[in-house]
Amino acid sequence: MLKFALKLDGVASFALGLLPLLIRPEVGMPVGWQIGLGSFCVVYGVGVFFLGTRAVPDRRIVLLVIIGNGVWALDSVLTATMDWFPLTDAGVALVLAQGLAVLGFAVLQFIGLRSAASASDRGTRPRSQSLA
Fold first, then answer.
1. What is the pTM assigned to this prediction?
2. What pLDDT does residue 127 have?
Protein backbone atom coordinates (compact mmCIF):
# COMPACT_ATOMS: atom_id res chain seq x y z
CA MET A 1 0.00 0.00 0.00
CA LEU A 2 2.86 2.42 0.77
CA LYS A 3 4.38 2.21 -2.68
CA PHE A 4 0.96 2.65 -4.29
CA ALA A 5 0.22 5.73 -2.12
CA LEU A 6 3.59 7.28 -3.00
CA LYS A 7 3.13 6.67 -6.73
CA LEU A 8 -0.43 8.00 -6.64
CA ASP A 9 0.77 11.12 -4.83
CA GLY A 10 3.52 11.51 -7.41
CA VAL A 11 1.21 11.24 -10.41
CA ALA A 12 -1.42 13.56 -8.91
CA SER A 13 1.17 16.15 -7.87
CA PHE A 14 2.83 16.06 -11.28
CA ALA A 15 -0.52 16.48 -13.06
CA LEU A 16 -1.67 19.25 -10.73
CA GLY A 17 1.67 20.98 -11.23
CA LEU A 18 1.24 20.95 -14.99
CA LEU A 19 -2.15 22.67 -14.73
CA PRO A 20 -0.85 26.14 -13.81
CA LEU A 21 2.22 25.75 -16.00
CA LEU A 22 0.32 24.90 -19.18
CA ILE A 23 -3.13 26.39 -18.74
CA ARG A 24 -2.80 28.96 -15.97
CA PRO A 25 -6.45 28.87 -14.88
CA GLU A 26 -7.91 32.04 -13.42
CA VAL A 27 -8.13 31.21 -9.73
CA GLY A 28 -7.21 34.58 -8.27
CA MET A 29 -3.62 33.69 -7.40
CA PRO A 30 -0.77 35.77 -8.84
CA VAL A 31 0.82 34.22 -11.92
CA GLY A 32 4.24 34.08 -10.24
CA TRP A 33 2.83 32.02 -7.39
CA GLN A 34 1.05 29.71 -9.83
CA ILE A 35 4.24 29.12 -11.79
CA GLY A 36 6.30 28.59 -8.64
CA LEU A 37 3.82 26.19 -7.05
CA GLY A 38 3.28 24.38 -10.35
CA SER A 39 7.02 23.92 -10.84
CA PHE A 40 7.41 22.66 -7.28
CA CYS A 41 4.55 20.18 -7.73
CA VAL A 42 6.06 18.81 -10.96
CA VAL A 43 9.47 18.22 -9.34
CA TYR A 44 7.90 16.92 -6.13
CA GLY A 45 5.67 14.56 -8.12
CA VAL A 46 8.63 13.06 -9.95
CA GLY A 47 10.54 12.63 -6.69
CA VAL A 48 7.69 11.02 -4.77
CA PHE A 49 6.85 8.72 -7.68
CA PHE A 50 10.52 7.68 -7.83
CA LEU A 51 10.46 7.01 -4.07
CA GLY A 52 7.47 4.74 -4.64
CA THR A 53 9.43 2.69 -7.18
CA ARG A 54 12.14 1.72 -4.69
CA ALA A 55 12.10 -1.86 -3.43
CA VAL A 56 12.04 -0.49 0.12
CA PRO A 57 11.33 3.25 0.31
CA ASP A 58 13.51 5.04 2.88
CA ARG A 59 11.38 5.41 6.01
CA ARG A 60 12.87 8.81 6.90
CA ILE A 61 12.07 10.26 3.49
CA VAL A 62 8.56 8.80 3.62
CA LEU A 63 8.04 10.45 7.02
CA LEU A 64 9.23 13.73 5.54
CA VAL A 65 6.73 13.34 2.68
CA ILE A 66 3.92 12.60 5.16
CA ILE A 67 4.76 15.64 7.29
CA GLY A 68 5.07 17.80 4.17
CA ASN A 69 1.67 16.61 2.96
CA GLY A 70 0.14 17.44 6.33
CA VAL A 71 1.62 20.93 6.23
CA TRP A 72 0.45 21.39 2.63
CA ALA A 73 -3.11 20.33 3.57
CA LEU A 74 -3.18 22.75 6.50
CA ASP A 75 -1.77 25.54 4.36
CA SER A 76 -4.44 24.85 1.74
CA VAL A 77 -7.19 25.41 4.28
CA LEU A 78 -5.50 28.60 5.50
CA THR A 79 -4.98 29.83 1.93
CA ALA A 80 -8.64 29.25 1.10
CA THR A 81 -9.97 30.87 4.26
CA MET A 82 -7.54 33.64 5.25
CA ASP A 83 -7.83 35.94 2.22
CA TRP A 84 -4.09 35.81 1.53
CA PHE A 85 -4.97 35.91 -2.18
CA PRO A 86 -8.11 37.20 -3.86
CA LEU A 87 -9.15 33.67 -4.85
CA THR A 88 -12.14 33.20 -7.11
CA ASP A 89 -14.83 30.72 -6.09
CA ALA A 90 -13.20 28.21 -8.44
CA GLY A 91 -9.85 28.98 -6.83
CA VAL A 92 -11.17 28.32 -3.33
CA ALA A 93 -12.75 25.05 -4.50
CA LEU A 94 -9.54 23.96 -6.23
CA VAL A 95 -7.33 24.81 -3.25
CA LEU A 96 -9.62 23.00 -0.82
CA ALA A 97 -10.04 19.97 -3.09
CA GLN A 98 -6.31 19.52 -3.59
CA GLY A 99 -5.73 20.07 0.14
CA LEU A 100 -8.19 17.31 0.92
CA ALA A 101 -6.52 15.03 -1.65
CA VAL A 102 -3.09 15.73 -0.17
CA LEU A 103 -4.40 14.94 3.31
CA GLY A 104 -5.73 11.66 1.89
CA PHE A 105 -2.30 10.86 0.46
CA ALA A 106 -0.71 11.55 3.85
CA VAL A 107 -3.16 9.19 5.57
CA LEU A 108 -2.61 6.44 2.99
CA GLN A 109 1.16 6.87 3.24
CA PHE A 110 1.05 6.76 7.04
CA ILE A 111 -1.05 3.58 7.01
CA GLY A 112 1.26 2.07 4.39
CA LEU A 113 4.36 2.99 6.39
CA ARG A 114 2.92 1.40 9.53
CA SER A 115 1.91 -1.71 7.60
CA ALA A 116 5.35 -1.99 6.04
CA ALA A 117 7.02 -1.58 9.43
CA SER A 118 4.85 -4.20 11.11
CA ALA A 119 5.29 -6.61 8.19
CA SER A 120 9.06 -6.29 8.36
CA ASP A 121 8.98 -6.96 12.10
CA ARG A 122 7.10 -10.25 11.73
CA GLY A 123 9.28 -13.24 11.24
CA THR A 124 12.45 -11.38 10.40
CA ARG A 125 14.26 -11.64 13.69
CA PRO A 126 16.60 -14.60 14.03
CA ARG A 127 15.76 -17.05 16.75
CA SER A 128 18.08 -16.98 19.68
CA GLN A 129 20.18 -20.08 19.96
CA SER A 130 20.36 -21.55 23.41
CA LEU A 131 23.60 -23.23 24.38
CA ALA A 132 21.96 -25.59 26.85
1. 0.82
2. 52
